Every structure is written in structure tokens, then in C-alpha cells.
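Hey,
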Amino acid sequence: MPSSPRVACVVVPLFPLAARLRSEPELAGEAVAVFEGNGNAARVVAATRPARRAGIQAGQTLPQARALLPDLLARGQDRESERAAQEALTEVADSFSSRVESAGDGVVYFDAAGIPVPPPLETCHPERSEGSDSAESRLGRAVIAAVEKAGLPARFGIAASKLAARVAAGLPDSPTIVPEGEEARFLAPLPLAKLAPEMELAETLERWGIRSIGELAKLPEGEVASRLGELGRELHATARGIDPRPLEPRLPSPCLSEGMELEWPLVTLEPFLFVGNAALERLVRRLEAQALACRRLEIGLKLDPEGYDARAITLPAPTRDVKTLLTLTRLELEARPPGAPVVGFTFAAQPDRLRQAQLSLFGPAALSPDRLATTIARLVALIGADHVGSPRAVDGHRPERFTVADYSPPPPPPDRRAPRTGRGLLAIRVLRPPVELEVMTSPASSGHPERSEGSPAFRLLSVKSSNGAVPEIAGSVRVAAGPWSLEDGWWSAAPASRDYWDVELSEGGLYRIYRDRRTEKWYADGLYD
């Protein structure tokens, strides 16, 4: 038989205030009130405990609150902070269950049936009753701890219906567990307003003399449905602890975002980076909780008075380094200032998996992919994305042709490769730029460094540069192979027409040299190892 449904509810008390304190943790412990509205007409939505002790209550205007507490820190209701806090709360629920419903305003439901729970924290006290440390109680404590780690206070309730779980989560003694089958009795003493009936239904029930949920649950279901219709039937089922509507799972967001609305416009970069650093830290903590990293950072700036500036930074590799993300943000804003004061911002990260490193039992430790991504991102910030990458060969005739691709280290081989048999090949070290040579021959020479019996000797000497960076190449040609002719780019403005040789010098060294037919100059562009 299928198990009975168990719905868990997580509630963040005083959600507008909790979301604001999550964005500004330095205000914790201060007398702070969150207001909705502008000017003197703004009214208190929520206040911290020091403010409530001074008499600050919800619904008071700003002048009334200032009269009670002149040093009150007033903050406007921040929709962006509330949206980010709701996403963080939903992500915590996602880590416990695959069926999660976000009800908004700091409320989340999830399917708690069959969730594995952690073992009891204290197993050395057998005098504990089973109900005081049940599996659902341990689940509630684990959820509350995870939400508090995300920077939000939380209360937890669990029952067979969403309404009963929501009411249980609102009680101060958290976590609160409603035993199976006790939902109707748990809801019975509550006022009818907890069901949030529509206006017409509420007026009808009031004329009937129905004041509590229990009184509505005692009415015959058929009579209620015939007189109040489908809405009345659903309301009656909810009063009896039965959910007429199942959980509505949400689709995970393709990106994670953090931001806030500022109390005053910012016109310089340093104050913005100060508040932006805290937002990036919250964003990275959420990525780390899901074993993800940032692959692309999108920045949205709300400008004063009305305007919006959007830009994006593509990282060379996924990273969770806050300093790197902040540095890239600084360089981006310094290169293209927004042009107006900033009154709000949003950082959105497109997540990706971190690169995995192969561990070694006997060899040195492999380079951390996270640190490698951080280093590459800093190099990009310093010298530009066009100057950072991995060289790749280009299909063409000229040996010096290459391109720069995104740096991506190859994955380790799946198994040990057997060594190749047979004769090994020489590797050539390319000289960039090619070293100009001075070729000395006798007048009887034909101008080519091939060597035969009785022919004159050739001697190579590298031309020194002003900075002394040219490697020294000097000696007589003992053996030469060639020439191999090359013609490339004859249709372009800079064609190539060359004759190549491989030469071995009597003093040691094996080089690849060529003669440019257009300029009649000699160069060495490779050294065989």
C-alpha cells in the first residue's frame, strides 16, 4: 500500500527583514526596521528585536517610529534581496527532496515522504522517548540548520496537508510534527481566516455562524458542496486536513543570482565593489552548496533615475574564486563605466561543473582545476582574452603557422598505455621568431649548403640582435639534406617562397634552416632535440 503523504513546510519569520539582514549582515543586533512605501507615508513591515523592545510595531509610519526610537535604522523593502533569499531557501529544500513548491514570501513546501534522515545526535541517552527524537524531528532540525547556514532563520512543520504543515511551521516551538491522522484535530481550534476563503464564501460562512475550522469540518461534505460549489468543497476538504491540490514542483532556475537595491545612488566604483563583494560571496556559497562553479557572470545595473545596463563576463574556465570574479567585475566597469549613478545591481552566474583532477598514488599531485581556472581568469583580466590560450597547429604549408585556442588540459588516459616500439622520431623545437643567419661560402660555391666530395665548406653564424636574445648558432656544415621548396600565399600581399635544409654542424647541433628567395636572406627556424 502506498504510504500516507507527508508535507514539510519551511517558514522564514519576518521574511522582508530576514532577507535584508542576509544582504547586510553587519546590521544584525542593531535596531532596524524595514518599511514599505516612500517618505512619511512609509509603514513598518518588520523590525528587529531591539526595535520591537522600543515599541516599534508593524503598521507604524516612519515619523511614528522615529518618535519612539530616534536612532532607528530604516531600510526600504528590497524586492531583489527577497527574491534571492527565496531562491536560496528553495535550493536548500531541493537538497532534501525532489518535489519542492515555492510559495513565496519565505514559505517553501516539499514532499517529506521517504526522505532518509540523519541518525540521532545523541545515542547515549536511552531515556529519550521516541517522539522527542523521531525521524521527522531529526529531519526538521537538519533542514533548519541548512537554512541557517544559508543566512536565514527558519521554522519547520510537517503534516499530511500543506495547511497543517504551514500552521505547524508558524509555531514558536520548532520543529513541530503533526502526527499522522491528527491534522483535523490540530486545525479545529484555529479561526476560519487561516483557510483564506474568498470574500463571498467568508461572508456566507459568517452568516451561517461558522467561526473556526473545526466548525466547518463538522458540516456534511455534500451539503457544503451543493450550496457553496467547487470552492466550498475544496475549502471543506482543507478544513478536514486533506489537500485538494497537490504540490506544484518548480523547474530549477538555469542560473543563480544575487543582488540588492541600494539605499543611495553610487557614483564611484569602490563603494559598489564593497557591496558587490558581499553579493558575490553569497553567490559563491550557493554554487559551492550544489558542487557547481561560475562559467559566465552576468551583471545587471539599475541606473538612476530610470535605466538599465547589462553586460556579461565569460570566464575561461568555471571558478568559485570571489577575488577573481570581483577583479573581472572591476576591470569590466573600469573599461566601460555605466554612465549614471547605480541604485541597484544583480549578479547572475551560469553554473557549470568544476573540472576534475586525476589523483596519483606515486607521482606529484595534479594541478587543481579550480586554481588553474582562477589563474587563467586573472591572466585574462591583466592582458586580455586574446592573449591567453593554448597554441594549436594550423593546417598549412608554413611551419610557423599556429592559432590560439581556449586552454583546456586533456583528461588523463583511462588506462596505462604500452610504450611504442620501433625507431623514435626527432622532435623539433621551433624558434620564434626565426634566427637570421649569415652563411659564408667560397666563391666557387653554388649558393646551396649541400655537401658533396670536393665541394667547399659552408659556415653558419647567427646575426646578433640589439637585445642579445638571439641564440648563438655557429659552426661549419658537416652534413646537409635538402633543399625542399615551399611556396605559399602567392595570392596574398606577403607570399612565402623558401628553400629548406636540415643541417648538422661540425661543432654539434642539428638545425632546420631556409633561404628566402625574395630577400635572399637565410634563417634558422628549428632546432632538433
